[in-house]
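SAMPLE LOG
Freezer: B-3
Tube label: C17
Construct: single chain, 528 aa
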Amino acid sequence: MSPSGDIESLSNAELKALVVELMGRVTDLSRTVIEQREEIARLKGLKGRPDIKPGKPSGMEKANRPALPSKPPRGGGGQTSERVIHEDRILKASVPLGSRFKGYEDFIVHDIVLRAHVVRYRRERWLTPDGRTVMAALPCGVKGHFGPELRRFVLAQYHQGQVTVARLAAQLRSIGVAVSKRQVMRMLIDDKEAFLAETRDVLRAGLETASWISVDDTGARHQGRNATCTQIGNEHFAWFGTTGSKSRLNFLELLRAGHSDYVVNAEALAYMRQRALPQHAIARLADHPDKHFADEHAWTSHLQRLGFQELRHSLDPPRLATEGALWGAIKAHGLLPDTVVLSDDAGQFEVARHALCWVHAERLVHTLDTFCDRHRKAQKHVRSMIWRFYADLLAYKRQPSHRRKARMSERFDRMFARRTGFAMLDRLLKRLRANKAELLTVLDRPEIPLHTNGSENDIRCQVTKRKISGGTRSNRGRDCRDAFLGLAKTCSKLGITFWDYLGDRLDIPNQPVVPPLPNLVRLRCAAQ
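STRUCTURE (predicted):
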């Protein structure tokens, strides 16, 4: 019914019908106006109207209240305010006539689009007047016949998601990607020199600037043989290296962080004296004019010329000399300047300034076999004293002082010099007392932790990978596995998502810029 005409001539029923029709039109117009306002605000980048609820305290009142400890988000998820809305869909409601439009109620749904997407690049070809053929370049990030998004997905699934190559290939084929296991393996290990260089530089940055590092190792399989994976890191970085040995010589080679030289300097000679290398052998190295050797072949040839292979000594002079030259190279490159190495008392990690884990020390007492009630009572008493002492060390770390340091040192002597009557426990206490300097390093360096829980947590990803995927076959596969697991751990510690890191390094368009990880590690460690 049209409102035009003489309204006085309309009957009562016709007037009611006209009012209902006009109310419906007003509702539609109000809805259109609100939608247009929101669209204009979205296009201008403006924020919506504030949602002020009645009775809610103001920000000033909230700021004056004592702050409650914040809980970290579960699962590493971000806050709701940080979510980016990629698409808006307006859902219409069926309402009776006369209803008033009251805006929208948002309901956010997270989804993922996972499907095969094949792009055919039709590259122009031109023949220049001088006979050369010019072809249009491929977009940035396109290398080979698999796109950067697919390569990022494969790397994230394999290294962070711990998916095997066989299952990853089957998963991609089910989505619609024509790929084989061999091609998946190539995406994991081919052309990864930049990633290998970055993880090496992460280790160098950590060893140059960190005040402490913690280390650990675990078993690994490589080329059908038993191997060892060593972890080096702290709260800002993590690095893994798989080798065939777990000796101190091997650990020193890892601490060179990719350098291959051997150096005979003051630090190297001091190391040899500390390890009781015969003085006449040290003199041969000190008096020779050659002090720097480019690689292992040059160094071993030098030792042979000096007659080290003919030296008869129970401590293996060539090995001790090599350890010293490795330590000299570490110091020559500015690594471990005054760094504390924290370990679980494994002998191969006893280099530089060494500190021991209190949890592992107490575990020796906890796992001691007891045979009677008197032994169990003595064990329980010693354990309780150790944990009380541990709690006081934590308090000392928060407020160190010279007076408290002296008291803690005296208390350590009394605690581990006691005799319980349990012979095995007494021998263990004597052994722990001999490690006083390493267990009480925290009195001089309060910034170091009292345990190696961080290393054990870091190396767990290598244990999981070993259980799921077994061992590695090629040296390149081994190096890539270690590198990417270390990069993923380092990203997590620096607050960077591994997905964003891969997107930036693989030149995927419109991705967040991730600075070089070694630079971030240096900044964090320097501020430690």
